Amino acid sequence: MNSVLVRYHEVALKKGNRPYFVGMLRRNLDFSLRDLGLKEIRRLPGRLLLNFGEEANQEEIGRRIQRIFGVANFSFVERTPPDLRLLKDRVLASLDGRQFSSFRVQTKRGDKNFSLTSPEINRQVGAAVKAKSGARVDLENAELTISIEILPHDAFFGFDKVNGPGGLPVGVTGRTLSLISGGIDSPVAAYRMMQRGCRVIFVHFHSSPYLDKTSQEKTRALVQLLTRYQFFSRLYLVAFGEVQRQIVASVSRPLRVVLYRRMMVRIAEAIAKKEKARALVTGESLAQVASQTLDNLAVIENAASILILRPLVGMDKQEIIDQARRIGTFDTSIIPDQDCCQLFVPPHPATKAKLPDVEEAEARLDVQALTQLGVEEAEIEEFRFPD
Ligand code: ATP
Ligand code: MG
Question: What secondary structure does DSSP assign to 101-118, as a single string?
Fold first, then answer.
């Protein structure tokens, strides 16, 4: 079977946006599968048909499609002319070598002018399968489901439907800039934005030369993993050591983390403007650590005017960990590193930073110059999947 039928969630589609949505889905499928012998993508009513060359690697194709947001489900299918006798012959031939003791046939007729109704097609194909295989028909718990679709110019049949990841095709809802740390949370936050149709650009703050480069290496590895879901990523690496040095020189210990965060948000906002990204994304989750109290989140947010999204704000750590495992980032995230926010901060930072105190402390810094420095000296790297 060298074709795949990809179905998308109609419910998520407002009528006017549908062509755009389907166009992006098609583009993303093309990006992701081109190197696996994808020959063409055809638009059929309510679905896309992907035709591959002769030696399609079903396993890898399936793995990739399961990472393409907007796909509700898909199945490997074989195409035949819309003629019942031919269809029956092809179904029987493709059963060679399959073991099953019960089966059912499910037909959907997209072409209402076809000479037979769906139940009649089920009955006729079912009788032929039964005669050949000796298996019994079981409508409730069949071991094998044979799905048939009749469209105006083609018929398709296939066996198993596989669930896709749902969501919206990457790109349809706009661009966001994700603050990614190398930890467990921020890669999950970025993933959740991609699932909602965002193209995510990344920014990472590092403290080299004060700390080693593990956090940068981890971040690169995480961005590469996440690029499997959006096919192309850009990462800004911002040297943050000088900002931290100046904060440490003039600000008392308990407020430092909040000041670091405010500077991160300012630099990120400037990068977002350059990249035409509409929002920042963080992996913050309410009260998970001292810097993530309602008071502190409000004071951090106050440093920027751009929208800040926190997709994990209401999630428990365990839920976040479970998702990190599913998307494949967990093992990289837990590699020990030196995180820039641990540099020169006390074990118990302020949990209730007050804006006037923070502003007074910041008055001793040249905030604008430091922001500009961060943006100007940022290094940019690009990632692709497949490479
Ligand atoms: P994570 O698991 O994502 O590291 P965390 O639980 O360690 O999060 P914090 O250290 O308070 O929590 O960081 C909160 C958020 O701030 C991170 O999720 C990330 O979005 C952003 N952030 C923190 N440190 C960095 C960094 N070095 N570079 C970029 N973003 C960062
Ligand atoms: Mg962290």
Answer: SEEEEEEEES-TTSSS-H
CA distances from 313 to 25, 29, 33, 185, 281 (A): 29, 31, 34, 10, 11
Q: How many CB atoms lie within 10 A of CB 10?
A: 9
From atom 7 of ligand 1, which residue's Cα is the shortest distance away?
Answer: 183
Q: State the pTM of this model.
A: 0.92
Please answer whether residues 8 and 22 qualify as being in contact, where contact means their C-beta atoms are separated by less than 8 angstroms. yes
Cβ atoms < 10 Å from Cβ of 112: 8
Tell me the C-alpha distance between 377 and 171, whole Å.
28
Six token digits for residue 254? 């308990």
The answer to whether 212 and 338 have CB atoms below 8 angstroms apart is yes
pLDDT tens digit string along 253-276? 888 999 999 999 999 999 999 999
Tell which atom from ligand 1 comes closest to the C-alpha of 333.
Answer: 2
For CA atoms 324, 326, 327, 329, the dihedral sign is positive
Ligand 1 centroid–CA 179 distance in Å is 7
Determine what percent of the chain is predicted with pLDDT higher than 90.
78
Say which DSSP state 196 is in. Answer: B
Residue 351 CB: number of other CB atoms within 10 A?
16
In angstroms, what is the span from residue 381 Cα to ligand 2's centroid?
Answer: 21
The rounded Å distance from CA 187 to ligand 1 centre is 10
Q: Measure the CA–CA gap between 215 and 232, rounded to whole angstroms.
A: 21
Residue with CA nearest ligand 1 atom 11: 291
